[in-house]
From TrEMBL:
Listed GO biological process terms: diterpenoid biosynthetic process
Taxon lineage: Eukaryota, Viridiplantae, Streptophyta, Embryophyta, Tracheophyta
Organism: Scoparia dulcis
Pathway where this protein functions: Secondary metabolite biosynthesis; terpenoid biosynthesis
Pfam families: Terpene_synth, Terpene_synth_C
Cofactor: Mg(2+)
Protein name: Putative gamma-cadinene synthase
Domain Terpene synthase N-terminal: 16-188
Ranges for domain Terpene synthase metal-binding: 252-325, 358-528
Amino acid sequence: MANTVRPASLFHPTIWDDDTFTSLLTLDCEVEEKYAKEIETLKEEVRRMLFMAPQGSKATDNIVLIDTLERLGLAYHFVHEIEKQMEHIFESFLNVEDEGYDLFSTSLMFRLLRQHGYNISCCIFDKFKNKENKFIETIADDVDGLLSLFEAACMRCSEEVILEDAMDFTTRCLKSLIPQLESPLREKAVRAIEQYSLHRGVPIVEARLYISIYEKEDHANMLLLSLAKLDFSLLQNAYRNELRDLLGWWRNLDTRSKLPYIRDRIVECYFWAVALHFEPRYAFARNAVTKALAVIAMINDTYDSYATLEEIEIFTKIVQRYAATVICVHLYILVILIEHVELSSFTTRVYVVASCFIDRWNINDINQLPDYMKVVYRVTLSVYEEYEHAVSKQGRSYAVSYAIEAMKQLTMAYHTEAKWFTRRNLPSFDEYVSNGVKSSSYYVVLSASLLGIESATEEAFKWLMSDPQIGMATNIMGRLMNDLASYARESRGGQVPTPVECYMNQYGTSREKSRLKLHAMCEDGWKDVNKEWVHRTSIIPQTIVERVLNLARITDLTYKNEVDGFTSPEIALKPYIFDLFFDTITM
């Protein structure tokens, strides 16, 4: 291995200067306390607004209030109050055809009901079609109505033809109207048509953008605007402190000198973690996901771009044994808790076996690795030991075994890809997707997320690992969007077989048709996500399922339009990261 030719750094260095983050100002304790008190006062006012909202069958004002709270990132403060209102709205909305709701109101209620898990039928839009089954032309210049219908159509599931028609109709009409629109309506239309729908947008990113748009609106509620600004300021303050700590952790690992070939993207990893759970109570979840993503990138770059196949095989075997080791330790702890008093002979035997296994792994296995891989291994081990320590305090030690199983599957999938490349094998597209489901890192990221959610029971981990439809759809979308975004780089470098090549090989289609088919598969994936979100029958709480939805959202944001925003954040992610962590909002 001494003569192995290693590539120099393959990726651009981080675009973020460490000194920029260390110099970021945070709120002093007095200001933070002042903001917190003002927020509590304003929240009581909002609760009164929700309570006093119209209770009749026509609740347009009420639904607009709820939509505004959600778009400003404030809904998490009023979960109980909003759910009660949505229950009432669903009950009264079943006869919406007879209530005279216009396009804007009908579309808004439809979208919000589906976003809250109510299976409202898309047939309510039939009244906006003519005898030729086309949308009536009188709504073609109703910009607010068209925007609302566009957003509703983004909640479509498979075979909902009227919503497919609505998407085509609104896109065509809005594109023709945009040149005539003034701010802030123009910004809303451009954002929807050219970038992101509300449903697919990352909630905290959308909230920050909407605050800037909302304050320009003539009908803006100053109470809601003030609350949104204060709340975002406190969130941003927390993010800055957390990010500063994570940057310190990353610097202490000294990966820039020890592993110069990997992507240095700790800021982007944290951005993803915030996208999955922006609310204040999820600080540990953000920490856990950030470190999981850093480890994923470290191992991915090692397998894809630096290690030999022999080294990869050794590392992969160690990860498999690592999983068994932790399970043995858990068995020993469980026996101790049950025995309480003296160790029985059975307990002693378990202890001896576990100790020997750990020693052999720590000393002998790691010494089989080259020095650079020892760094990767130690970082991985330290992160999962940190997880173990944290969840053990919560009485959830079982959770780490699921996180380790996810890492085990990931390295095996990476190993398969490395064999394909080294041996110049081009798998079928079906084989590629089957392995890609495991190499997408979905399991590793979301198992780390659940570690940070104390309400996540063992049932939640079992559900996650059972490949629910929303998970599989997110998984496949993530793999395909990631690979489409990195297709040009990887096909030029010959690093790994690309999905486009695999599809062309299996189906005999052209390169362009293959690309279009993969994009269509991603679009179908969103329909599957919507279907389970609306129709879900699982007992798993919405707070858990929402992490999967948020992972689909941040994946879409990062890899949209075939841009690899993680590898090259200056292209896609930098403006959003700047808004969340750098740009102090004007009060």
